[in-house]
Amino acid sequence: MIMTETSINSQPVRILQVVTYMGRGGIETMLMNYYRNIDRTKIQFDFLVHRDFEADFDVEIEFLGGHIYRIPPMNPMSSIYRKVLKNFFDEHRYSVVHCHLNYMSGVILYYAKKAGVPVRIAHAHTANMDPGWKQWVRKSAKYLIPFTATHLVACSKKAGDSVFGKHNYCLLANAIETQKYSFSSDIREKVRGQLKLDTSFAIMHVGRMMYPKNHFFLLDVFRKVHETIPDAKLVLIGDGELRHEIEKKISQDMLQDAVILLGTRNDVPELLQAADLFVFPSRFEGMPVTLIEAQATGLPCIKSDTVTDEAIVTDLVTSLPIDDPKCWAEEILKKRDVPRFDQSQAIISSGYDIHSAVKKLEQFYLNGDPL
Questions:
Q1: How many CB atoms lie within 10 A of CB 336?
Q2: Interatomic CA distance for residues 133 and 346, integer angstroms
Q3: How far is CA 255 from the centre of its chain?
Q4: Which end of the chain has fewer CB atoms surrounding its CB within 10 Å, N or C?
């Protein structure tokens, strides 16, 4: 059906991607990896976002030919929000809607279904819920998904089981542009110079400063490492709602000279080259893109055992519990001088290279082929 539409109009099929906003998070980075590499003569992405500000990827999206539509923040209990959603799908005709709002995807797809959208995809990217009252709302909303979606897609088995329960779903890899992350000693030395790391043992984390990423635990771990290695540095890439509290803890622990806060960056492939170790102590994740990226650069990695082992695609990763900072500190010290090797082939063999993964997504969109 979709292929017929393309051949008749001689125009690419436009896929509506529904997100919160297109900042530099894991979901958004994954989407942009696919968008940059998909055959845009056949497939174009448009984005329905739930914020009224310009986000990191917006300019690039429009440069690549995508449209960005803005609606208010999601509130399914608001009659105004529901009316806006209904009006959007009445006014904009799509044959495919791909929703990335996890447990809340059923709300969007309900109105897409009412408007007659034939292909409605719910995509699971997380394996848990934030605490608080929103958890109840999300847990209730997820039961809409099987009745409103035509296809269920997940980034990992852990995410799929969490969002979709016993319903059948398929997997789509959070694929990366592998060659961008191939280890380069020249880039490493250049970036270490820019960051003034000198001979310091550089520990790196990439992630939004939000509850799931567990920054306060990471700072407790680093404090113990710093007691043993006074010139160790912790490099934090990302920003978010907890930044002020994180800065406050850094000051309280007297680590201002040892923790480097880089904020949101668009040069993560280069920054990863400068690190000696990658740490990822998340409370929960679906399938972390940054952990795949770190392995691609040949970095030894330590992740929490709450992060799916599906993210382990090389022999560089160690899993540890997130209730024992001393255990983490001891493991970090063991990995102080691990040599770097090219891991490109391991990433490609595991299915996380974008050039093969994007072909599967193209055929899924155009022909309905299984992922």
A1: 15
A2: 42
A3: 28
A4: N
β-bridge mates for residue 121, sequence order:
98, 151
CB 296 within 8 A of CB 269: no
pLDDT in tens, the chain (371 residues): 444 344 445 789 999 999 999 999 889 999 999 999 999 999 999 999 999 999 999 999 999 999 999 999 999 889 999 999 999 999 999 999 999 999 999 999 999 999 999 999 999 998 875 555 566 666 777 889 999 999 999 999 999 999 999 999 999 999 999 999 999 999 999 999 999 998 999 999 999 999 999 999 999 999 999 999 999 999 999 999 999 999 999 999 999 999 999 999 999 999 999 999 999 999 989 899 999 999 999 999 999 999 999 999 999 999 999 999 999 999 999 999 888 888 989 999 999 999 999 999 999 999 988 88
The answer to whether 2-175+353-367 and 178-349 have equal CATH topology is: yes
Question: Which CATH architecture best describes the domain 2-175+353-367?
Answer: 3-Layer(aba) Sandwich (3.40)
| pTM (global) more than 0.85 | yes
Angle at CA 81, nearest 5°, toward 76 and 82? 70
How far apart CA 230 and CA 254 sit, in angstroms, is 12
| Backbone angles phi and psi of 82, in degrees to 5 | -65, -35
